[in-house]
Amino acid sequence: MFNFVKSMLGPEPAQVHYLIDSDFRTVAQGWSRPDGTGPADLYGARNPGYVIRTTDYTSDLVAWNACRDLLVDFRGDVMFLTPGAYSVGASTWDVPFGRILGTERKAPRYGAAPGVRNTTVTFTATQTLGADADGIEFGYIRIVPTTAVATFTIALAVDDAHFHDFIWDTDGITTSASTICFSFATTANTRWTLDQFSWHVDAPQGPVIASAIGLSEFTVSNFKNTVGDTSGTYAISLLDINAGGEGSENIVLGPGLGLASNAGTGTVSLLVESADLTGTISGCSVVEFYGSQNYATASTLVSSTGDDWSIMESYIGATGPAAGVVYTS
Questions:
Q1: In terms of domains, do 176 and 35 share one?
Q2: Which of 130, 148, 132, 136 shows the shortest CA–CA distance to 184?
Q3: Does 5 reside within a domain?
Q4: What does the angle CA 246 – CA 169 – CA 3 come to, to the nearest 5 degrees?
Q5: Which of 44, 201, 247, 327 has the fewest CB atoms inside 10 Å of its own CB, making it the most exposed?
Q6: Residue ranges for the chain with pLDDT beneath 70
Q7: Do 29 and 152 belong together in one domain?
Q8: Per the domain annotation, does 68 fall within a domain?
C-alpha cells in the first residue's frame, strides 16, 4: 500500500500522511506487533511524523483533524486512509488542493468498485467545505451518512473539486428528504466533477446533490443508483436545483444507470428537479442515462419550469423483454 501511494505520486512534491484505524486489525492479527514489525508499525518507521493512529487520540474525529492539519496547502498532499471504519463528526476542510484517498480500486463501467467498501467513513455530522477547499480530491471511500444531514455542505465558493470512486451508502439509514450528499448554498461553485460513484437507497432519501445557488461547468458521470425502496417513492434521486440556483449553467449528467426494484413500491419520480434557469439556453443536459422500468417515466425524468434541459440518447426500460423507450423529458 505504501509503495502504491508513492508510485502514484511520482516526482511531484506532495507528501502522504497516513490515517490508520487502529481498530482495523488487532495485535493478535498482526496489524501492529510488539516487536514493531506489523504494517502499521512499518508505516510509522518509514514515515516518522506522517502517521496518525486513531488510538493515539481521544476520537476518530480528533485523529482526522490532526492528520488534515499536517497537510500543506496547494502542494497536493494526501490524507491516505488505510482500510478500516472511521467515525467522523463535524469538521471543516481547509486545505486547498489537498486529497483524501483510500486504496485505489479498478472501477467498473458504471459506479464505484465494490472493494471501495474496505475503507468506510461514517460522517455523523456535516463536513464543511469552505473557501479554502478549492481543488479538493476525494476518492476510493465508502460514505455512510446520518439521517437528515447533508454529508458535505459547501458554504462558500469552492472550485475545481473532484469526487470520484466513492459509494454513498444510505442502506439502513432512516428515511428523510434532508439526507443529502452535497448541499450547495450561498456562493456559486465552478468546475466540479463527480465521477465513478454509486449510491444505494432502501428507503426514500434526499438527492445526491441539492443546490440553492448557481453551479457551472459541473459534470456528473459514470454513476449508478440502485433503489430497493419498500416504504415509498424516491422523489428526486440525483439533482435538485432549488430557488436561488437559477444561474446554473453547463451541467452535464451522464452516462449513468438507474435501477429500481420492487415494482409499485420502489419507484423513482425524478432524476432531476430544476428551478427555471436564467439563461435562454442553459447548456444543461442528461446524456446516455439508462433507467429501469420504475425509474421515472418516459416523460418525467427531468422536471423544470423552463425549457432548460436537453435529454440525449437516454432510455427507460420497457415491459419485456422489449426494447427501451426514449426519455422525452
A1: no
A2: 130
A3: no
A4: 105
A5: 247
A6: 1-12, 25-30, 230-231, 262-265, 280
A7: no
A8: yes
Question: The domain containing residue 51 runs over which residues?
Answer: 14-82
- Farthest CA pair distance, the chain: 69
Amino acid letter, residue 33: R
The per-residue DSSP string of 49-115 comes to TSEEEGGGSSSHHHHHHHHHTTSPTTTT-EEEE-SEEEEE-SEEE--TT-EEE-------SSS--GG
Q: Which residue has the cell 516518522?
A: 48
Do 189 and 316 lie in a common domain? yes
Write down which residue in 82, 100, 127 finishes a domain.
82
Q: What is the C-alpha separation between 192 and 211, in angstroms, rounded?
A: 13
Domains of the chain: total: 2
Using DSSP's 3-state secondary structure scheme, residue 140 falls into: strand
pLDDT in tens, 79-102: 999 999 999 999 999 999 999 999
Q: Measure CA 138 to chain center.
A: 8
**72 shares a domain with 145:** no
Q: What is the CA radius of gyration of the chain?
A: 21
